[in-house]
Structures are given as C-alpha cells and as structure tokens.
Amino acid sequence: MAPEKPDGITLGLERITRFLEQVLPADPRAQLRVVHVAGTNGKGSVCALVSTALIAAGYRVGTFNSPHFLEPNDAVRLQGVPIPKDEYQRLRQWIEELDTQALAEHGRLSQFEQTTALALWWFAQSSVDIAVVEVGLGGQRDATNVFGAADGQRGVGRSLVQCICPVDEDHLGLIGNNVEEIAREKAGIMRPGSWIVIANQDRSEAFHKIRQVAHRVSPGRIINVRRQPTYDIHVPNFAIAEVPARLRAPLAL
C-alpha cells in the first residue's frame, strides 16, 4: 500500500527532485529559464508585474503562484491566462497516478509538490521563454527551489533572476525562529551568476542577512531597491547592452 500523501506544503527537496528526475517522462526543468520570487509580503504582486512586463516585451511567459487566487487552476498561467480547468484536472490526475505508482523511498508528494510538478511540466510542454515562479513557503527547502544556476552548468534548468520581497516574521518556528533566520531561509533560492533583486526591507536584520548571502552567492549582480534616498538604488556592473533587445525599452523607462 502506498504511503499516504501529505496535505499542503511539506518542506524538503528529496521527493520533488526525484519525481522530476526519475518519474516524469522527461525533466521539465531542462527547458526552463526562471525568475524566482521569495519573501513574506508582495510576492504575488511582483510575479504579476514581472509577468506582465515580460509578456509586453514579447516573451512567452508561464506564471506559477502560491496559493491560488479563486480556483486551483488559476495558480498556473500562460500569458496571464489560467490553464483550462479540464487540462488542470487531467494533469493533476496523471501526476497523482505517476506518484502512486512510483512508491518513492521518501514518500508521496505533497499537494503543493504535485502542483509544482504540474506547473513545470505544463510550462515545458507549452515552450515558455520564461517561467515566473513564486515560492510556496520559505525558500531554501521549498519545492520550487529545484533550478540550477544561471549559467546552466550547475543543476538542471536556469534560474536567471531571484527576487527577495520584504521579509517579516512569517511561519516562526517552521522556517526560522527570528527574522534573520527566516531571511536566510528565503535567500536560499539565490544562485551563482544570477541577478539578485533585493526589495526594500523594513526589518534591518532581514536586509543585512539577505545582502550578506547575495554578496557571497552572486557578487556584482545585486540590485538593492530602497524607498529613500533614491541614490541608494544600486545596480553594480550593469550594462543595458547585456539585456536582450526586447527588454531594453521597458528598462529604459
């Protein structure tokens, strides 16, 4: 008898990584480039803004939000439009059947891990240019934190940009016992060689921990966004010529 499937979000990457690598017909991460968004407040809004900007710039964009807004299928979108309900249900059933048959050493996928696998598979099958992915809980041990470095040499898939939204005391005791520990957990999505965007942080201990991790992981590719003063907006070693042509106009604004 298969182990019971846990509900909700279960931290840890063993189950989801094994499922993507060994159970699905092909690992969808290999075809994906990702903008990864973590934090306590504002993740959904940032995902919406980034997705809208990329779509306007001519990219084919998949967006994965957690939690869903009104219906489960609206957590998974292509060009801003939710995956059709019948397609969502078909893929959900297929993912669950594969998971049941696999009898994994680490147990069944959680509901969130199933939805993550579904979203990544659908994005790969839909040939998206960019996937904008919202972290479910925390960051380092979240099921969405399964992508390799920006250069494509370390891990599967390419996490090009990581955004850390404002961090506060959420899920105390689960992802950390104080704001600094929570910030470190959320900074765990950072990848070498990527662009790291640090939103304005109301908690100084969160900002210092996030910045510390960012400078260790991807020095020279860090954007610190502060409300005031405006000259604190810092974009080191950034040349607009490095940006694909379709994105230069929005950046110039």
What does this protein look like?
This protein has 253 residues and is α/β, with parallel strands linked by helices. The chain has helices spanning 14-23, 43-56, 85-102, 111-125, 179-186, 204-217, 245-252; strands at 33-38, 61-64, 76-78, 81-82, 130-134, 158-164, 195-198, 222-224. An eight-stranded mixed β-sheet has the order 4-3-2-5-1-6-7-8, with helices on both faces.
Which structural class best describes the helix and strand composition?
A: alpha/beta
Mean pLDDT: 85
Number of strands: 8
Evaluate the radius of gyration.
18 Å
Q: What would you call the shape? A: globular
Largest sheet features: 8 strands, mixed
Termini gap: 58 Å
Strand order of the biggest β-sheet: 4-3-2-5-1-6-7-8
Order of helix and strand elements from N to C terminus:
HEHEEEHHEEHEHEH
Helix content range of the residues, please? 25-40%
Task: Work out the helix count.
Answer: 7
Which parts are unreliable, with pLDDT below 50 for 5 consecutive residues or more? 1-6, 228-244, 246-253
Strand % is 5-15%
What is the structure about, briefly put?
With 253 residues, the protein is of the alpha/beta class.
Primary descriptors:
253 residues, alpha/beta, 8-stranded mixed sheet, 8 strands, 13% strand
